Amino acid sequence: MSTIEAVPATPPLSSPQVFAVTGREPSQAGSLPAKAPRLTSLDVFRGATIAAMVLVNMQPEPKYWPLDHVQWHGWTPTDLIFPFFLFIMGVATPFSLGKRAATGSRKTLLAHIWARAISLFALGELLTGLPYNSFSEIPHGYEWIKALRLALAVLCVIGVLLLLIPWRSKALSLWLPPIVFVLFYVAAVACHLIIKHTSGLPDDFSWGNGLLNPLHLRIPGVLQRIGICYGIAATIGLFFGWRMVLLWAIGLMTLYSWLMLTVPFTPSQYVDKSVPRTANGKVVGLLTKTDNLSRRVDEWLLIRAGRWNHAYGSYPDNEGALSTLPSIAEVLLGILAGVWLRTFRPAAERGMGLLVFGLFTLLAGLALNRWLMPINKNIWTPSFTVFTAGMALLCLGTVFYFVDVLGRRAWALPFKIYGMNAIAAFVGYGLLYRLLIVIKLKKETGAPNAWGWYEHHVYMGMDQLANALGHITPRLAAFNTGENRSLVFALSYVVVVCLLMSILYVCKIFVKV
Predict the structure, then answer these.
(1) Which of 140, 289, 401, 417 is the most exposed place for a label (fewest CB within 10 A)?
(2) Residue boundaries of the structural domains of the chain
(3) From CA 318, how far away is CA 301, in angstroms rounded?
């Protein structure tokens, strides 16, 4: 998510590190320009990815199939969005670390990497912990619960702002993320103790979600996985050259494949008795929705933590523990693309390289899909990692050619606005949604909260438009189907977030983590 900055000349680091961070051989470092041009195409690609994420996440049912996740094996365009996030994070890493390499030691760079990783993880936890839904009426004598809910919501918002503010003090920027991270879990433990020792409430009383339901607080998530994968992958990129980065990516995917295909685990009741089993009744190599090693690991971790429940649906978690290994490889493949983009080759040659590498990587992913493991986002198979990296290279190469080679940028302004404030858009869309739900309205408005009011008026506008078009010809009114209403509603929210980011863009405020 980091923005791409200029890279100072001659970073004072060891030779392997110079190559890994800046993408240039040490012998070439002395001829680097004082200020490297910004890659607008990466901002555009990042912005388009985030806009797509807002679109699919805020779209109610029913949906068109390309805007929904595949149930198990296979993929849809929606399944490309999250791996694109990770890949883009990797592409940006050589640029962002290259700038800091001129004035910082390896130790300083490592501290910055993990401060940023913890910030991303903490931002995800703060959004998850903000209580905003499923509240019960407060019984008489327990009015303090309402104050507790409000205090927790305010503290989560303050925590988000503390992590997003560009502090001038380097020490503060490094120490604040772990402090916020620790305080969040202190608050979670305190809420658990308060709930545990509160008696006299009705049996059906609901405290709500987030920190007010700490035992069911979802630790995995998009920002959380991005933070973990970035921290590990950027550390590898800091200490190793591009060849070792590639070997790390291959090694992580190989290790994951070996674990998934060879480690025995206890099957569920749904497994057919004819499936081959070990001497102690376990199965090996199954990749079904109900039976695979990644799921068993997630279930074991949740049970050990006392948090196993059916709130996760039919599958425990799409951002599970074991599947983090190939997700790290996704970022490492992005780092390799970033290294390529920082070479001295002409822009057209670099763009063509992205497309050629993308084609071969995509074909490799399809080959792995056939001969190793199926393409599957839920368990993030190596074939999914390689295939989506190939798709990301093709998309980035196309955008790079039009934006940075041909200079055709007018069409991309909305995506650039999103991309230059990527973290603000990412956090802002979720925070705005939660706050709109928290804001209660009077019964006269016809909606329980501000989010319901917004939803009602978008759909009412569509109905009015359909009626107006129906007076012209009945065929034009037929567009007001369930799928189109859902799509238009999600697009309206994309526009709202874009308008908010436009204010920051015009004011030249660019939020970084």
Answers:
(1) 140
(2) 15-60+81-431+492-500, 439-480
(3) 14
